[in-house]
Design brief:
- The structure is a single chain.
- Helices cover 16% and strands 34% of the residues.
- The strands form two sheets. A five-stranded mixed beta barrel has the order 4-5-6-8-7. It has a three-stranded antiparallel sheet with strand order 2-1-3, covered by helices on one side.
- It starts with 8 loop residues before the first helix and ends with a helix.
- It has two domains: 49 residues, no CATH class; 91 residues, OB fold (Dihydrolipoamide Acetyltransferase, E2P).
- By secondary structure, it is α+β, with helices and mostly antiparallel strands.
């Protein structure tokens, strides 16, 4: 029996596109809404005409929190961990890992990277921040799953 993927085919496609160096979101061919997370049908009108489109990499942090517990060993060894909800310039709201210098309410750039487990992730960072300067986030995208 083949192993089942932990993510949808649409998220697998997003990851493939991130690996190719892009930041593309699905946009509905019927109503024009951008989608997040990637899915099989439009969340606004239920059309299945979704096209991958380059998207603006800016966002605003609308909420943030600090995790003190995690079931994943990688995060458990690096707690506390900052995450938040960001309003993407294209419209959708997404969860993102937060750079240590990111503040709620601030405008940020979205970095799309592949994490230690091979998943595409979003990282919200101030426009002038360097990912390499945030030790935890740098480890997130440079470690390999054991």
């Amino acid at each position: 029996m083949a192993a089942m993927s932990k993510v949808s085919a649409a998220m697998d496609e997003f990851t493939r596109r991130v690996r190719a160096g892009g930041f593309e979101l699905q946009r509905c061919g019927e109503c024009g809404q951008f989608q997040w997370p990637p899915r099989e049908i439009c969340s606004a009108c239920w059309s299945d005409i979704l096209e991958w489109t380059s998207a603006d990499r800016t966002a605003t942090i609308i909420a943030s929190t600090v995790l003190h517990v995690s079931l994943e060993r990688f995060f458990r060894e690096r707690l506390p961990w900052r995450v938040g909800m960001v309003k993407l310039a294209a419209g959708p709201v997404a969860y993102a890992h937060l750079h240590e210098k990111s503040e709620e309410g601030s405008r940020v750039k979205i970095e799309v990277r592949i994490d230690y487990a091979g998943r595409a992730i979003l990282i919200a960072a101030p426009e002038d921040a360097k990912l390499e300067k945030d030790k935890k986030l740098n480890e997130l995208v440079s470690q390999k799953e054991e």
